[in-house]
Design a protein that fits this description.
Two copies of one chain form a homodimer.
Chain A lengths: L1 H20 L10 H15 L2 E5 L7 E6 L8 E7 L19 E3 L2 E3 L3 H22 L5 E7 L9 H7 L8 E4 L3 E2 L5 E4 L1 E13 L5 E2 L9 H12 L20 H9 L4 H8 L10 H10 L4 E8 L8 E2 L2 E10 L5 H14 L6 E8 L2 E2 L5 H14 L4 E3 L2 E4 L3 H6 L4 E3 L15 E3 H20 L2
Parallel strand pairs in A: 3-6, 3-7, 7-19, 9-17, 10-18
Antiparallel strand pairs in A: 1-2, 2-6, 4-5, 5-20, 8-9, 10-14, 10-15, 10-16, 11-13, 12-14
């Protein structure tokens, strides 16, 4: 079965290029139907029974299943997404973001590693089982949604609708692979997210800035509001923000301590001199995994072109994403944030909720976690890092909490893939090795009793 | 002579349209040479002797002169600019910004009222004198620069070069005309300006916002810096900012008290409910004319497109314009601002000076001020407003301070011209009446001894 991957991976690199060349930007409603059709076609060609599940709004969920003939009582439930982040700023890409150009053993494209490579990889794995053994080692159920990058807005509908169908003993989440130093990572959870947009509008049109002495400026109001949200030490100053934070257990802290993190490599990659507040070592790792965050993802007002324009803007806006840890409740925190703004005199500022997801966790001693670690040692011949939860977000809690499926996030990604940034890329060697790993996880899971 | 204007103004409306259709955006280095050539051609056709004065950088100054045969000992020195503000945001215009479309007696175009209408008006006035009397009533010297909207960066060179040439007994500045309620305004000064750009760069590339717990965010730094610059009452908190502010005299305060200001009209025009800090009446007018300002003209960081993107930006920037009153020194204040940033822990924030101009003033009892008021009563049959200094900015201090020429700012603008904003427009009736006024000012000035 692993031999099939070695002999045929180039076919699947081509399939990945085909997928990556199909733009599917959920934030811009670009190419989603086309991408769903393409994924459906690829799954059907592989041997899946496929449905396109329409929801009340938004692109469909591609849902594919393959039944095992010899082992129909074990089921693994897989999650991926076919949508990608916006490619902007396009001028910083060295290849056009939907060209899927190969250079130095890497494929460059928006969405190629997040998360189309994992889709292509899992197609290859299932085909490898079917071609080698004429069967899959267990039942495979696979949901691939098209709104992950905008907060999985309608995915809950799918889960409600397919709740009885989505039964299984373990789950594999969308991403994973190698950390800096090519160390395999077994990720057991995701941070949650609250994504909001602030809008301050003080007039119906922009004004000559000569009037700045008497006409309110929305940019000042936005700046003053934002500055109340995080204190000078980076701690979130919204009342009650940390109330429900689940304390890290001794086991969690031990996993964090053992987790490798190449600080110099990250600094070099990002061109930064220091981490936030000069953090390093264990404290840095603890903050990285354990801390809720308040991030300004976008900020704009007035004239942002070249040269100088003396304008007093009518509107100022900001986008913020808050990463959440167990057991923070995004709906409750959204309310706290609104109350905070009101309390500080910003009740006239519009606060629009864009996305929310609670955090998700799978126990370190679950069967699927142990199998993932064991097979990682086998495939990569390295001790894997156990990541108690990834600092990334996603709707994993639907698997772990709503469906009650212990779920690991493993896959074919590598540390310098530039997810969500210009020049996103997928290493082809990791595509091959990571696929072998995931294949072995499925095989071992199928055998376990 | 006024009859010539009544009979021929349509010819000059066409000339104004031709001028307005030539883009000349100094902030974007767009069409400036072409605009200079067009203005030169129009002045030559009128009867001026014209030079294009090249400076070390930037577009040329158009310098035109007409000698008076009968009255060669009196000279009026005029200033205008042929450059315009950027047209953005273009989507808010009801006609394309360089179409110069006429609708309901108004010409719509970027720069049409600021300040191309005054150029066309003064061409018409000089032609009216020459056609009616075969002479101008006094010598006319006219400098028209191409960088006013970006802070007249190279205009000082011109003034230095032409200092001996630029002699005269009075000056007419670029703009002026009717206030709300069609009240003529005699403006005797301009606020100064300090225009700066802040740039915070914390990394060499944007990062997935999952790293927000450990990677510094430049938008937070920028927000925190900006929030130190102005306090919650809108007062500028930079040390020494108000030290050199010249106190308003009793005469100044009297002029402010007499100045009409239709608060409801401004509120309706801008769609605002209240002025800053709930100001109204005399206090509002005093703030408008007398207060130094700190305006955020532009602000940007990260992802500003539709939907949501979870990015931690590498760069955050802001543009700010500070309006200055006599006797604030922009160079000194730029240093204070830098020191302020350093003192508050922002020494790593880049502060780029984009433009600076001190404020300018001409005495209320100067000859040209009195003539302007008297002829305004005659032409408009209304009591004019004496504006001690306009809240707008420009290099007027080169006339009033460097050359020592008492200067009024009068012209053909109207109150709802939307300068620096979408749908900028010029009322054709005010173009005609304002031209008659400026013509009468020149005539009366030429006669005075």
């Amino acid at each position: 079965m692993l031999g099939y991957i070695d002999e045929n991976y180039e076919t699947y690199v081509k399939k990945l290029q085909e997928l990556a060349r199909q733009p599917s930007v959920s934030a811009q409603n670009l190419g989603l139907q086309e991408a769903a059709q393409l994924v459906k076609k690829m799954l059907e060609e592989t041997g899946f029974h496929v449905q396109l599940v329409s929801l009340s709004k938004g692109p469909p969920v591609v849902y594919g299943t393959v039944q095992s003939k010899k082992n129909p009582n074990r089921t693994i439930v897989i999650y991926n997404h076919y949508d990608v982040q916006p490619p902007e700023p396009v001028e910083l890409w060295k290849h056009p973001p939907f060209s899927a150009t190969i250079e130095d053993g890497k494929i460059y494209a928006r969405g190629v590693t997040d998360n189309k490579a994992n889709i292509a990889s899992r197609i290859m794995i299932v085909k490898a089982f079917l071609e080698t053994h004429g069967d899959v080692p267990c039942n495979i159920k696979w949901a691939i949604e098209g709104e992950e990058e905008i907060g999985s807005v309608h995915f809950p509908e799918f889960v409600r609708k397919y709740r009885d169908e989505l039964k299984g003993q373990a789950g594999i989440w969308e991403f994973g692979g190698l950390d800096i130093g090519d160390i395999p990572m077994v990720t057991l959870g995701l941070k949650g997210m609250l994504y909001v947009e602030f809008k301050v509008q003080t007039a119906t049109k922009d004004v000559h800035s000569a009037r700045a002495a008497i006409v309110p400026n929305p940019a000042w109001k936005l700046v003053k509001l934002l500055d109340t949200i995080v204190d000078d030490n980076g701690r979130i100053a919204v009342e009650g923000w940390y109330d429900d934070v689940r304390e890290l257990t001794r086991q969690d802290l031990e996993a964090i301590r053992e987790m490798p993190l190449d600080e110099e490599d990250i600094k070099k990659d990002l061109g930064i001199k220091h981490f936030l507040r000069g953090l390093s070592g264990y404290e840095l790792k603890k903050a990285y995994l354990g801390n809720p965050t308040a991030n300004i993802a976008g900020l704009w007002s007035g004239y942002t072109g070249p040269g100088h324009k003396t304008v007093l803007p009518a509107v100022a806006e900001a986008k913020m994403d808050f990463r959440l840890v167990p057991d923070q409740d995004p709906a409750k925190l959204a309310k706290n944030l609104r109350d905070h703004a009101n309390k500080h005199g910003f009740s006239d500022v519009e606060l629009k909720l864009q996305a929310e997801n609670p955090a998700a966790r799978t126990p370190v001693d679950s069967e699927i976690a142990k199998i993932s670690a064991r097979t990682a040692r086998e495939v990569f011949q390295k001790e894997p890092a156990i990541i108690i939860y990834s600092p990334a977000s996603g709707p994993m809690h639907y698997w772990t909490s709503v469906l009650g499926i212990p779920t690991v996030s493993i896959g074919v990604n590598h540390a310098h893939g530039s997810q969500h940034a210009p020049n996103e890329n997928q290493r082809i060697d990791v595509f091959v090795q990571g696929s072998k790993w995931v294949a072995r996880v499925i095989e071992e899971f199928a055998r376990a009793r």
